[in-house]
Amino acid sequence: MTADPGTPTATYRLQLQPAFPFAAAERAVPYLASLGVSHLHLSPVLEAVPGSSHGYDVVDHSTVRAELGGEEGLRALARTARAHGLGLIVDIVPNHMAAPAPERLNAPLWEVLRDGPKSPYARWFDIDWQAQGGKVLLPVLGGPLGEEWERLRVEDGALRYDDHAFPLRPGTEGLPLAALLDAQWYRLGWWRLARTELNYRRFFTISDLIAVRVEDPEVFDATHATLLELMRDGVVDGLRIDHPDGLADPEGYLRRLDRAVRTATGEASDGEGGGGRWTVVEKILARDERLPETWPVAGTTGYDALHHIDGLFVDPDGLAKLTARYRAFAAPPADLGGDWPATVRRAAREVVTHELAAEVARLTRTAARICAADPRLRDHAPWALRTAIRELLVRLPVYRPYASVGGPPATDADAVMLRSAAADAREAFTVEQEARVVRVVRDAALGRLGDGPDHRDFCARFAQTAAALRAKSVEDTAFYRYTPLLSAAEVGGDPGRPAVAPEEFHAFAARRSRDWPATGTVLSTHDTKRSADARARLAALTECPGWWARTVEELTRSAPGPDPHLAWTAWQTALALGHGDAARLVPAVLKGVREAGLRTTWTEQNAAYEEEVTAFLEAGPCAADPSVWAAIGAELDGPARANALGAALLQLTMPGVPDLYMGTEHLYTALVDPDNRRPPGFGGEPEARGVSAEKLLLSRTALRLRRERPEWFGPGSGYAPLTAEGPSAAHCVAFVRADAGSEGGGGGGAVTVVTRLSRRLAEAGGWGATRLPLPPGRWRDLLTGRTAEGSEALDELLSGLPVALLVRS
């Protein structure tokens, strides 16, 4: 079996923005083609809020974004890419649109605000018209209405407030202001009301991103028409689906999209598999969670691969010692960063009670209506329903269950998960009869109580709320509280158990090769908290935990932080960059302390504390003597080099389609956004040197090999682990890629060899007598030109670089 010609061999992510539009991407095409990728992967291209640096705040699905060069600019980019043998993958955002200022930018939303629930566009948005007296709450005011009254005015047929311009219900323009406000289909409110009073679904807790009911066929057609036209015309070749877990019915959406793409491109449907065109979903999988096999996609965007690759470079014994030193130094309470499970539980309770109070309130209202309509379910008080909903939500170990009313039943795994959560949730009730409400909520979440509108709404919304809770409580709160090793706090990761043994990695890779051979893999993205090379430096700390703890203690004696937790986190953040750049470090650390919510938050900012944080950073990491960074480099540069090159080679050669984030073919250290969304400078960088030159060589070599030999790496190829022999065998990860069935015999193929835990290896005396038995034949390392055959001594094979990429001579 040969590789599917529609599957990319590798993609290259470009983060488009006004400072890097289609024309800039077009100028980079010759370089990217020479690098060896097969497709450009573009961030969202449809019309977005003016000035947006990311494009996920779409305002018009019918138009390609003018600030990027419009449709002609996109088509020109596609033509140039095609001329150089490249295709285009585009990121799409089906879950939400912007609620912008001025509101007229979003024409469908403008119509709804003007005409209310009878507007033909009312079906577009997930609005609970039964709440707020039949009005849409718009939490846009800087203070309570009475304090903002003088800033409201009617002008040019609209109600204006700062940059906002709201439509007026026909016939109300001449009313006095109080009467005019009461007459509208919306209610202007203080922004703090969103937490408890909001009556439209949003993206996580971001009130200026309003959810779209893409499950409605009419809404789907309207929001995908331009995209499908671009696919029909050969401009777009594949898709990345943003946040599918926000959708009411992810599988239903993906099947509708698959049919629409096949119709637009004239491709016959096979009913299963990877979709009409290569399509991956941004699905965040827990460690032991599996992507639903019935989804018609090629796989995920690749955060699951990131976790398994990163974990190979974490020393579990060293991590345990590092964690103990962190607890001794920072002394965090168990549920505020001292213990991972306890920290997650507390964060989930905080988020479900506060940030997602409005979402829980809507679920409670819907559950109450379900119970009121069925005599057998009555007498469950609203407080009991609300408690049961919260207790179930905080106990889910994954983003969401997949269940629907009238559709396929929940999988056995989801049913078991909810049964287990329900059994534990009963502990929140002291009266046994009251605890029975948990079973009602569980069955409603599984779609088992009926098939009416409220049953469908509850089942979908429970899952959507679960996804928002998981993202906000784990990735946006607990990750910033539990900080013994910052590199472990990454999208799709498990800070409580980040280490991955080689056997686990091989099992994961073999499973992907068998079940999802065209799935995506990533190491750095626009959403990662830290780039792969920054994490590579941090992972090296698990090989020298005592040295790091002593270093932080010494550094903070002369420049103590506002609190030891902050000092530990800040110095690791600076270490990830490799220097103390105030322009980049201060914003990243301030974002971290606000996300953690220990002493300041986004909505309740503690200005005095934040000033202390800034002063500490400027006097500590950012003012450290060059000798400090030289000493740190002497300890970490070697292991960090091995980690960075090893992770890069693993991603580029393991099963799946690697996606390189812009600039990561070189050494690339970046922190959380916006630091990782800076416009790239193709052609403007100095000549690569040192590790950056080595990484460029590795990336170009592996990418070109994938492009030249898709049968070794794509669908239909094989994967087989290779096991080293000798005293240091545990430090080697190796595997062979080839045509399926020929991994161990003759014919072509490639062998990847990577060093893990290199500092521990050096402390043990190096490779010594450790050897790697190679498959039959004579092999050549494409990175060094060295040849090998039979059982190769690793101290010779890896004498120049800590990695090797071999092909049969």
Describe the structure.
- This protein has 809 residues and is of the alpha/beta class.
- It has 28 helices and 24 strands.
- An 8-stranded parallel β-sheet has the order 16-15-14-5-2-1-18-17.
- The longest helix has 29 residues, at 453-481.
- The radius of gyration is 27 Å and the shape is globular.
- InterPro entries: GH, GH13_cat_dom, Maltooligo_trehalose_synth_4, Trehalose_TreY.
- Residues 8-704 form the Glycosyl hydrolase family 13 catalytic domain.
- It comes from Streptomyces mordarskii.
Short account of what is shown:
This is Malto-oligosyltrehalose synthase. With 809 residues, the protein is of the alpha/beta class.
The largest β sheet comes out as: 8 strands, parallel
Q: Considering DSSP H and I runs of 4 or more, what fraction of the residues is helical?
A: 40-55%
Secondary structure category: alpha/beta
Gyration radius from CA atoms, angstroms:
27 Å
Total of DSSP H or I helical runs spanning 4+ residues: 28
Strand content: 5-15%
Q: What's the mean pLDDT score? A: 96
Q: How are the strands of the largest sheet arranged?
A: 16-15-14-5-2-1-18-17
By DSSP, the count of extended strands is 24
Pick out the low-confidence regions: 271-275
Overall 3D form: globular
Ends distance: 23 Å
